[in-house]
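Question thread 4412

I'm putting together a teaching handout and wanted feedback from people who do this every day. The idea is simple: show students a protein as raw sequence, then show them the structure tokens that encode its fold, then repeat with a second protein so they can compare. Below is the first pair exactly as I plan to print it.
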Amino acid sequence: MNFKLDRENILGSSIALGVYIVGMVILAALVDFIVMPLIVKEGSETRVPDVIDLSLRAAEARLNDMGLGVITGGEEFDPERPLGTVINQRPEGGAIVKKGRRVILTTSKGSASATVPVLEGFSLREARFLLEKEGLRPGGIVWFTDQEKPDGVILSSSPSEGTVMRLNAEVQLIVNRVETDKMVTVPSFVGMDLETAVILAEENFLLIGEAGSEVNENLLPETVIRQSIPVGDLVKKWSVVDLTISILE
């Protein structure tokens, strides 16, 4: 009788012990695989702040406060943002990263600039080359007559030489046009865009007059279809050539 009770007590204790052990194993597993990773993750990750438009020093301070480092990623011209401000960051603001991660920052060099070169005495073709070399573009042309200077040369520019301008800005050219009986050959303008045709005319001491239009769906807009003076004709310097250009309906 007592032996039977002892067996039942031992069996009950064993079951209880087994349940306890299984419960502890499950609890340990929950802690190891769920609770601890959440705790570790919570402490090891952070959200990258947006530091665009801040100064480099202010951006570094904000990133350091979030447990992040900084790598300077160079400088780029940006006419919209002042010199030294952050214009790009990697990773972007809002990204979730591990603490200690370094963020690459690119800062602004400000607006790109170029200096107007010496143009006086050069031909139109040479002036265009000099301007493009400096990162500038030829703008409108003002014709002026100075009998003491060679025909077709640059008399001055606006702005004048030495002026610092933003990159790709236009420079107006004042060109000497002396009436002369010298003859020039008319080139072909057909197939060119209007801007290129004007440049070619000026380089050949000719002027582009009226630009009529004609609907043509097969050509890009402002493509020259016809010219008023045939190709190869000899005409006086500074003669006017009228063009017909394509338009879309």
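The second pair follows. I'd like the answer to focus on this one:
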Amino acid sequence: MSLASAPEKRPSGRPRCQTARKAILETTVRLLEHVTLQNLAIECIAREAGVGKATIYRWWPNKAAIVIDAFFEEVVPRTSFDRAPTAAETLQRQAARIVKVLNGRQGRVVAQILAEGQSDPGVLEYFRSMFLRTRRAVAAEIIQAGIESGEFLPDLDIEVAIDLIYGPIWYRLLVGHQPLDRHFAETLPRLATAAISRHPAPRA
């Protein structure tokens, strides 16, 4: 029988594995509503998800990695870069979504992830690789397009520009000196993109 005519065969264990993985991530999210990352135990996740510890360790090296994956799957769809008529508007809308998401349970979770990373550099590296770098790469593409179109300053340092837009969000999240409220979500992105624009928009 040729490969073209052979019936498709799928690994018998794959659907079950994906079901187990989904259960683990959903259980982790649910448990984090009542306990902190520091107090979360792999044994508890396994028991509540109805899986063995070996199943969890097949995919994740530690509990922080599970929490990061759960955070990633929850947050990424809610913080997409929906293209707007201008690069500045695209960045403003996405940054505002980040503020809204982090002003709640997800913000508390990511703060705990970053705290865990202070004693375990591997946690920070996993967070950067899973979430931060991919988000920054998309933002960099949008800023580069803005430079090429003449919307942004021609000699702009893209990495610094990204920090200018998003850095204050993480600052407020971690320091807690001011809230991640609606006013901040609307004001910060507008001021930050004005700072990198070639022709800043006039005040309303």
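Top answer:
Good format. For the second protein you could add a caption like this: The domain at 14-59 is CATH 1.10.10.60 (Arc Repressor Mutant, subunit A). The two ends are 71 Å apart (CA to CA).
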